[in-house]
Write a structure and sequence with these properties.
alpha/beta, Rossmann fold, 6 helices, 6 strands
Length: 196
């Protein structure tokens, strides 16, 4: 089944410095078992010296990280869909996913907007995949701030997979951890950490 082309290809290419992996690369990797090339985000530009009160906090980092997360998650689903055609029925493909609100690991209220924004962005983008059912924000955000049993949450939300994340800031460093769990077997499917 063909996947929709990204509608913002120019923005994705710009945000990832042209390191976008083509769908053909995903298919080739699925067929041959080869490892996909890693995506490398461009280094952050040197900041000019401004007083701390006038400096923007993390100006383009959230956008770049959000786009990178999106590319990785969409790539994972593309690979899963392609492989599902070639796998036995016992390994049923993931057809429904919930993106839980990302945890603010710093306790810094200023990061709540970023945590929520990343979760909402993934929900919006994954919803564009026609064969994938994505649980609405109003349902998945009920789990905000709770210690969640992922299998129980997946059962209640009617999904096979759950995407979780954590955003933390230490000084000027920002760290975002995202992972996808197959809740049917409580199996870790994918995880990635971004540090800026």
């Amino acid at each position: 089944m063909p996947l929709p082309a990204p509608t913002n290809g120019g923005a994705i290419k710009k945000a990832t410095a042209g390191k976008v992996i083509a769908l053909a690369d995903w298919r080739h990797a699925a067929e041959t078992g080869e490892r996909l090339p890693e995506m490398i985000l461009p280094a952050a530009p040197e900041a000019e010296e401004f007083p701390a009160s006038k400096r923007k906090k993390f100006p383009s980092v959230p956008a770049a990280i959000g786009v990178s997360l999106l590319i990785l998650v969409l790539g994972f689903f593309a690979l899963t869909r392609y492989r599902s055609v070639q796998t036995p029925a016992a390994e049923a493909p993931i057809t429904a996913v919930a993106v839980l609100p990302f945890e603010n690991g710093s306790g810094d209220a200023n990061l709540d907007y970023l945590s929520d924004g990343l979760s909402e962005n993934l929900i919006d983008r994954l919803s564009a995949l026609p064969q994938l059912k994505v649980i609405a924000r109003s349902s998945s955000f009920k789990y905000r701030g709770q210690n969640v049993d992922l299998q129980d949450a997946a059962r209640k939300l009617g999904v096979q997979a759950i995407v979780t994340g954590k955003v933390a800031r230490r000084g000027d460093d920002l760290s975002i951890r995202v992972e996808m769990i197959d809740a049917r077997e409580n199996k870790h499917l994918w995880g990635e950490q971004f540090n800026r």
